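Structure first, sequence second, as always.
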């Protein structure tokens, strides 16, 4: 199945719910890409025991797929001064939720309470800001992005998955902030910035 070994498949089969997938992602060190940028496959994530947001989203989408759900991503698009964030989406009882690998105290898991992908994306707006200035940077979100178009070889690829990363980045995105309101956005407060600066995995951690 997907070219996975029995051991790899067994791990993914055990991650049978979004909660279990998120719990597993939280045990993985954050990938600081110390030796250059990466976009590892789910197999490589298992081997290296670390991931950044897109690698975590690809892994989560694979776990959902193995357990019978569709492998869907969403990209949260920011200003150039900040970094985009990738999520794995899932649906329960007609509502959307998200699985998220992040190193911050925010931009995390979402329970399936959102009626539309837009509602879900909007839930990240107020916690998406620059730690130094509090400037809110989230500007758009992609339509649900199915990984089925890439078949299954990427799941066990030894190469970086730049084709998927670029396709997600170039997919259709929808704006969040009305253009005539950008200048009125209120920066996040000091206490919000302090909360947002919490890092789950330190750069000095030997696993990172």
């Amino acid at each position: 199945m997907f070219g996975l070994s029995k051991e790899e498949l067994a791990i993914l089969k055990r991650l049978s719910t979004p909660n279990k997938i998120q719990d597993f992602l939280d045990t993985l060190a954050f990938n600081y890409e110390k030796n250059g940028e990466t976009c590892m496959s789910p197999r490589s994530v298992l081997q290296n025991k670390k991931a950044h947001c897109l690698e975590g989203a690809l892994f989560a989408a694979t776990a959902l797929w193995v357990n019978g759900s569709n492998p869907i991503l969403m990209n949260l698009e920011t200003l150039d001064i900040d970094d985009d964030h990738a999520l794995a989406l899932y649906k329960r009882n007609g509502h959307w939720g998200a699985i998220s690998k992040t190193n911050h105290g925010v931009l995390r898991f979402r329970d399936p309470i959102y009626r539309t992908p837009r509602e879900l994306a909007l839930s990240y707006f107020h916690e998406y800001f620059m730690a130094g200035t509090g400037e809110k940077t989230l500007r758009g979100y992609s339509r649900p992005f199915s990984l089925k178009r890439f078949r299954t070889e990427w799941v066990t690829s030894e190469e970086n998955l730049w084709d998927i990363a670029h396709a997600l980045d170039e997919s259709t995105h929808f704006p969040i902030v009305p253009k005539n309101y950008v200048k009125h956005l209120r920066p996040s407060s000091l206490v919000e910035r302090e909360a947002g600066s919490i890092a789950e995995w330190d750069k000095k951690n030997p696993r990172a």
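Margin note: The mean pLDDT is 95.
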